[in-house]
Design brief:
324 residues; 39% helix; 21% strand
Length: 324
């Protein structure tokens, strides 16, 4: 969850300020083709309301985007990213969603959402002329201090929002950041059926080596997914949509028996999973020490058995009569 400890994708403004730092650059090398006009809200095509009804980003790009190749490259380059969810919203146009939730004067802005879940010291910057901004807040359940850098781009009747999230004040936070992307497009058979589809994907990028990689990967993934499920539940509530419209992203398989078993195990260890990283490390060290003691005890028992057998063997040899 945005709510969980960490929560994400390329910020072009930072890239321009530090071009030598390749670790903060998007591997795809995708360039911005269309942005909002200078000093204005992002501009959408006049036929946004009649965009292609197919749900795939490529289909929308073919009918509504002035740079189909760039949009397709964004979709292709994020194909391997982890899928979080796909949400179907009762908005007629992409611009409607922006106006209600992302604009500087949006009635249901990010600061409203973060306040509603108890985050503190919330600061949502104004969009720059090239539609870049920063969002800062202190997480309500942990000591984490979050910085999220956002980059909004429009492609005709479609758009994408890139987030790069870094977290401070927790162990290992300097070794990674999280990137996520929202692919926003319209779909619908007719004007009355017009709606907005948003696909959300993410990835974790490690910028340096850390012994906490496995812990960070597991917990960050869970927190990122949980945070966006919580945010889009907030969005649906404000739009009067039903919770069942929130669904896993396309391509996710139905849970198998093994998946359900792992889910039960995660639930059984929920107290461990939800603890701050520092507490989790202490618990991990305690469990490891306990296991090590058990192993040593088993080795001592095995060694005792071996010594007894050797003693029996020596007695057997000594009891044998000497041979001529």
């Amino acid at each position: 969850r945005q709510s969980s400890d960490i929560s994400v994708v390329i910020n072009h403004e930072m890239s321009r300020e530090s071009e030598s730092d390749e670790s903060d650059h998007d591997d795809s090398g995708v360039q911005v083709a269309i942005r909002g006009s200078e000093g204005q809200m992002p501009q959408f095509s006049a036929d946004d309301s009649t965009a292609n009804s197919k749900a795939s980003p490529k289909a929308v790009a073919d009918s509504a985007c002035s740079d189909t190749e760039t949009w397709s490259k964004i979709v292709d380059d994020t194909e391997t990213w982890s899928k979080i969810l796909q949400v179907d919203l009762p908005c007629k146009r992409v611009s409607d969603f922006f106006a209600k939730f992302l604009a500087d004067d949006a009635p249901h802005s990010l600061d409203v959402f973060h306040s509603s879940i108890g985050d503190k010291n919330i600061s949502v910057g104004m969009w720059s002329s090239s539609f870049l901004r920063s969002v800062r807040f202190d997480h309500h359940a942990t000591p984490a201090k979050v910085l999220r850098e956002q980059d909004y781009q429009t492609y005709g009747g479609a758009a994408c929002l890139r987030n790069k999230t870094t977290v401070g004040n927790i162990p290992g936070s300097s070794s990674f950041h999280v990137e996520d992307i929202w692919l926003i497009q319209t779909a619908g058979e007719s004007e009355d059926d017009q709606r907005v589809l948003i696909d959300v994907k993410y990835r974790i990028k490690f910028t340096s080596k850390t012994m906490l990689k496995s812990i960070i990967t597991r917990r960050t993934g869970a927190e990122t997914k949980g945070g966006y499920m919580q945010y889009f539940s907030f969005v649906q509530q404000k739009l009067g949509a039903q919770d069942e419209l929130l669904m896993p992203g396309p391509g996710l398989k139905a849970p198998t028996f093994a998946d359900r078993a792992r889910a039960l195990l995660r639930d059984a260890l929920s107290a461990f999973e939800r603890a701050p990283v520092s507490t989790a490390l202490v618990l991990f060290a305690f469990l490891y020490a306990t296991r090590l003691k058990q192993t040593i005890k088993q080795l001592e028992t095995a060694l005792g058995d071996f010594e007894e057998r050797m003693a029996d063997f020596e007695r057997m040899l000594s009891d044998r009569p000497p041979q001529d």
